[in-house]
Amino acid sequence: MLPDTREKLLAEAEVLVRGRGWSGFSYADLAAAVGLRKASIHHHFPTKEDLGVALIEAYGARYDEALAKIVADSTDGIARVEAYARLYLLGLEAEQGCLAAAMAAELAILPARIRDGVAIFFRRHIAWLQQILAEGRANGTIGADVEPAQSARLIIATLEGALMMERLLGGPRGFHETLAALRKSLR
Question: I need a surface site. Which of 46, 127, 142, 144 has the fewest CB within 10 A?
Answer without folding.
Answer: 144
